[in-house]
Amino acid sequence: ARKGKTPEEVVKKYLQKVKSPPEEDCTICMEPLGGPSGYKGPGVGPVSRAESVGQLAQCGHQYHFQCLVAMYNNGNKDGSLQCPTCKTIYGVKTGNQPAGKMEYHVIPHSLPGHPDCKSIRVIYNIPPGLQGPEHPSPGKPFTARGFPRHCYLPDSERGRKVLRLLLVAWDRRLIFSVGTSSTTGESDTVIWNEVHHKTEFGSNLTGHGFPDPGHLDNVLEELRAQGITEEVDGE
Ligand code: NAD
Ligand code: ZN
Ligand code: ZN
């Protein structure tokens, strides 16, 4: 959802002024921070000296202001910004997952490695459709293979925590993306985004099954990298 702010306003919101730029290169354009931005795209107007370099408020990494605006314009312009160096997220990151449905229910069987609890089955269903402006080839169709996709979690305290966070990730359109499948090589198709799911129940033929003692920790870490945690962050 658009916040009604210009890209310059969004970027400024997360930046602090830098009195004198360090003798380092901007890692977006690879040009010195003491000189102008190397980014010369359309719509880049002149920027006064005082605001040509900024420091991201939380992590402190510094970039040309124009480079951050260009990076923001290359994304889905959702009002959030992610530091390209340390991946700190400013605002609420959203993705480009196409429309669909997420459902879940408890099934009365235990997963390998989780003998003391039942299991949760999550079912994702995304139909094929047309790509929007946030996708790699706007206006072109995308395919959706292997849906509904069934995924499994232990119905334990930690498993339920992961489920809660997956529901947030779904709402923020971060579970799937449109792109090229690394499994099949097909382009313009729905693919898993950066959060791993277990799609095998009683076996582990694909490596996406159980047991996998590190799985829940890994998923929590991958969700955190998308800005999704259970910490209250004052929104
Ligand atoms: P991808 O191959 O680009 O991989 C993206 C991420 O998903 C990677 O991290 C990868 O490790 C993970 N991944 C790949 N296969 C997985 C699986 N089976 N279960 C859980 N995670 C998996 O992304 P993709 O194309 O979405 O992944 C392949 C998936 O696509 C498979 O789950 C398969 O069900 C589905 N698929 C099904 C058909 C079909 O006709 N039934 C066709 C193509 C793809
Ligand atoms: Zn730069
Ligand atoms: Zn940073």
Question: How does this structure look, described?
Answer:
The chain has 235 residues and is of the alpha+beta class. Helices cover 18% and strands 20% of the residues. It is built from four helices and twelve strands; from the N terminus they run αβββαβββββββαββα. It has a three-stranded antiparallel beta sheet with strand order 1-2-3. A hairpin with a 6-residue loop joins strand 4 and strand 5 (89-90). Helix 3 (157-171) packs parallel to helix 4. The longest helix is centred in the last third of the chain and has 15 residues, at 157-171. It is elongated, with a radius of gyration of 21 Å. 27% of the residues are buried. The mean pLDDT is 92. The structure holds nicotinamide-adenine-dinucleotide and zinc ion (ZN) (2 copies).
Strand order of the largest sheet: 1-2-3
Query: What is the rounded distance between the termini?
Result: 16 Å
- Poorly predicted runs: none
**Strand portion:** 15-25%
Assign a percent range to the helix content.
Answer: 10-25%
C-alpha Rg (nearest Å):
21 Å
Count the beta strands: 12
Question: What is the global morphology?
Answer: elongated
Quick structural summary:
Helices cover 18% and strands 20% of the residues. The protein has 235 residues and is of the alpha+beta class.
How is this fold's topology laid out?
Layout: H1 7-13, E1 15-17, E2 53-56, E3 62-64, H2 65-74, E4 81-82, E5 89-90, E6 101-107, E7 119-125, E8 129-130, E9 141-142, E10 149-154, H3 157-171, E11 176-179, E12 189-192, H4 215-225
Antiparallel strand pairs: 1-2, 2-3, 4-5, 6-7, 7-10, 8-9, 11-12
Helix pairs in contact: 1-2, 3-4
